[in-house]
Amino acid sequence: MPGALPDGEAVPRDGSLPPGTSLGGRGFGVYVHVPFCASRCGYCDFNTYTAAELGGGTSGEAYVDAVLAELALAERAVTPARVDTVFVGGGTPTLLHPDDLARILEAIDRTWGLAADAEVTTEANPESVTPASLQRLRKAGFTRVSLGMQSIAPGVLKLLERRHTAGRAPVAATEAREAGFDHVNLDLIYGTPGETADDFAASLAAAVGAGVDHVSAYALIVEDGTRLAARMRRGDLPYPDDDVAADRYLAADAALGAAGLSWYEVSNWAAGPSARCRHNILYWTGGDWWGLGPGAHSHVGGVRWWNVKHPSAYAARLAAGESPGHAREVLSADDRHVEDVMLRLRLASGLPLAVLDGPGCAAAARAEADGLLEIRDGLAVLTLRGRLLADAVVRDLLP
Ligand SMILES: C[S@@+](CC[C@H](N)C(=O)[O-])C[C@H]1O[C@@H](n2cnc3c(N)ncnc32)[C@H](O)[C@@H]1O
Ligand code: SF4
Q1: Ligand 2 centre and the CA of 163: distance in Å?
Q2: What is the pLDDT of residues 110-150, one digit of tens each?
Q3: Cβ proximity of 251 and 72 under 8 Å
Q4: DSSP-derived secondary structure letter, 39
Q5: How far is the CA of 277 from the centre of ligand 1 (A)?
Q6: Which UniProt keywords apply (predicted)?
Q7: Beta sheet of 262-265, edge-to-edge order
Q8: 334 burial class (0-12, 13-18, 19+ CB within 10 angstroms)?
Q9: Does residue 46 sit in the same domain as residue 112?
Q10: Tell me, what CATH number does 204's domain have?
Q11: Is 388:378 a contact under the CB 8 Å cutoff?
């Protein structure tokens, strides 16, 4: 089950923001969390629930009604010029009927107005889309699909407890392109116990072969409380190996680079600037976004808040006319600095040295001498070796 939420100051019942909070002007996004999955994968600790866990499930229509109620409350709290990006994530958004997803998108457009060139992404599980559902989503205004492929190797998919067959993800990506999606992402996970170098090479080749313009590749994280963590604790499976993970990362960068996809964030590769995920870039560069749905996080002008996690608690708050916000915090200048360094150093566009203090600049010079950073035009950019050690480099740059 998903872990507990952090505490913070209370969110007012009407969901209003602290007086004086204003949008930062770096773009406005909307995140929609769909907390439903057909089954829980053994490694996943996201805020998501199966029908059995919800006591027989919940109707898509009731969920959308609750999201629309939160949107009405959000409309009173913020007035962005327009919505630049929408990202529907999960859970499994495509467990909802495409008409339900379309209803959410229409409501966002009616409320704040979607920019003419808005990026509108939905995550999707490979087995939960069809050519017809993808066509309906494209027609509704979705512009991008992000599919959880994880691996092409049947043994790895089985260990991860995925529901789809090995070949399904690349086929779904092709179906998405045929339905008119110019922007399609495949998520890969590397470093699963038992995965061989050949397995991962085959996963990369299959992703590239599907003609997608974006790939995300994540090292397997063993999250507390998951079935995977329990199997490792019992000694039934070995823990992931850092050296193997580093080898896989280098293999990903080489294969994706050879296919014309270059890194723009440590775990993300795209076929040129227009293929980059603008919604995630907004997160990484201090933009504002409203997160709708159970457990969704939001950030507006230095105020961060998060909703109650359980779908029933979320629906109950909104049925009572109250904000689903569980708690919030106002970021201090120090908090913002730490976040800025952490997120922007992971980007290929680099971290301006001007944001670092004296000791931070000295640490950057040392990292450059060690071959971990490249410094040019006042920007610090991770080298390939630096990307393998990104967390350690960030730690050295911070007070
Ligand atoms: C929350 S999932 C939603 C996508 C969709 N439900 C799916 O699984 O196909 C988004 C992505 O997070 C990544 N992910 C989730 N848990 C992870 C973990 N423990 N370690 C590494 N990556 C993880 C997976 O690549 C997954 O595709
Ligand atoms: S389908 Fe995606 S969100 Fe659902 S449990 Fe699996 S990884 Fe997590």
Answers
A1: 10
A2: 999 999 999 999 999 999 999 999 999 999 999 999 999 99
A3: no
A4: S
A5: 16
A6: 4Fe-4S, Chaperone, Cytoplasm, Heme, Iron, Iron-sulfur, Metal-binding, S-adenosyl-L-methionine
A7: 262-265, 268-270, 214-219, 183-190, 144-150, 114-124, 83-90, 28-34, 288-292, 297-300, 303-307, 325-330
A8: exposed
A9: yes
A10: 3.20.20.70
A11: no
Is 95 within the bounds of a domain? yes
How big is the chain, counted in residues? 399
Tell me the CA end-to-end span of the chain in Å, nearest whole number.
35
Structural domain span for residue 81:
28-284
- Which ligand places an atom closest to the C-alpha of 228? 1
Give the largest CA-CA distance in the chain: 59
231 and 365 in a single domain? The answer is no
Amino acid, res. 75: E
Cα dihedral 346, 347, 348, 350, rounded to 10, equals -90
Is 218 a pocket residue for ligand 2 (Cβ < 6 Å)?
no
CA dist 138 and 145 (Å) reads 9
- Is the distance from the beta carbon of residue 125 to the nearest atom of ligand 2 less than 6 Å? yes
pLDDT at 2 over 60: no
C-beta of 283 in contact with ligand 2 (< 6 A): no
Ligand 2 centroid, distance to 371 Cα (angstroms): 37
Is 6 among the domain residues?
no
pTM over 0.85: yes
Q: What is the DSSP string of 63-128?
A: HHHHHHHHHHHHHHH---S-EEEEEEEES-GGGS-HHHHHHHHHHHHHHH-EEEEEEEEEEE-GGG
Comparing CA positions, the residue from 127, 197, 210 lying closest to residue 162 is 127
The predicted structure's pLDDT at residue 58:
73
Are 49 and 132 in a shared domain?
Answer: yes
Answer yes or no: is 397 within a domain: yes
